[in-house]
Amino acid sequence: MSFSPITHLRHVDIAVPDFDKQVAFYTDNWGLVTTGGERDVTYFAAEGSPEQYIVRVRRAAEKRLDLIALGAADRATVDALAARLGTEGVTLVSEPADLQTPGGGYGFRFFDLEGRTVEVSADVQTRRHRKIEEKEDIPVRLSHVVFNSPEPEKMTAWYEKHLNFRLSDTNTHPRMGGLFWFLRCSDQHHSIAISRGPHTALNHVSFELRGLDEYLRGSGRLVRAGIPKIWGPGRHRAGDNTFTYFHDPHGNTMEYTTELATIDEDTWHPSIFDVTEPETSDVWGIAETADEWISKQMFNDPDKGVFVAPPM
After folding, report:
1. How many CB atoms are closer than 10 A to CB 37?
2. CATH number of domain containing 87
3. For residue 265, what are the contacts with CB-CB under 8 A and spacing of at least 6?
4. How do the pLDDT tens digits run along the chain, 312 residues long?
């Protein structure tokens, strides 16, 4: 039996003022495919993923995170979670109902502790997808999302309490204390992580590639295309996954990754990793040294969408 009502991360939805430039980034550079939309909204899928879409881009006057969407096993789980959150004082944005987005399904929305809109859904139709072949340097699926929080300990406790996420590992600094909390809802090391930051914001969205060779090829392709690189290639200690971080046209951080660790629930114990040890940030030792400049690139702008539900 699953320890969390959440099965996985479905999609991340963002709003941006320069809509055409953001759409071009995902199609021409990042390796996603459009699966529908209308004049001011475009849905993007990963060729290797059964999810109807993993990113939605909406035209808006201001940049914001519209929502993150999480999967649940079935309608009964959706109903039970909505009822439970209501009794626990969580603000519901919408009650459980049939969804009008691609693939349909059944779900509801609520605000997390800092006002991000979260959707939980089940019974979404799967998309016809395919096996990503050797040397194809495009995303297979959405891997994880990381939030910046000025009160990360409270955010971590909120996701543990209300959605039953479990702590996999923590990155800490001897003077600053905790910096990153990696949270799982399945055997994947983390689907969500919370990072200490100066304000509520999106830290980064991560996309998994087929394997190490495809990850390196994809990272190199983006560098050659002139996409601003922040950090990488390298391999983190927590999660044991590779990383290369880039900026999209609106300053959001997007990551290519692969080989994220899986967890054995019977034997796993969370570790505390010291970021002053170089191996914590990059086991390989080939990425740029993690410094204040790199951290600031991922602080992002304060999110304009907190406690304001997106229009769709």
Report:
1. 16
2. 3.10.180.10
3. 3, 187
4. 489 999 999 999 999 999 999 999 999 999 999 998 888 999 999 999 999 999 999 999 999 999 999 999 999 999 999 999 999 999 999 999 999 999 999 999 999 999 999 999 999 999 999 999 999 999 999 999 999 999 999 999 999 999 999 999 999 999 999 999 999 999 999 999 999 999 999 999 999 999 999 999 999 999 999 999 999 999 999 999 999 999 999 999 999 999 999 999 999 999 999 999 999 999 999 999 999 999 999 999 999 999 999 999
User: Same domain for 169 and 282?
Assistant: yes
Q: Given 122, 156, 187, which residue is the final one in a domain?
A: 122
Domain span holding position 16: 6-122
Assess if residue 306 is contained within a domain.
no
Report the run of H or E that residue 162 belongs to, with start and end. Answer: helix 152-163
CB atoms within 10 A of CB 60: 18
* Residues contacting 103, CB < 8 A, separation 6+: 51, 52, 53, 124, 125, 126, 127
CA gap 156, 182 in Å, rounded:
9
The number of folded domains in the chain is: 2
Peptide bond into 174 cis (omega under 30): no
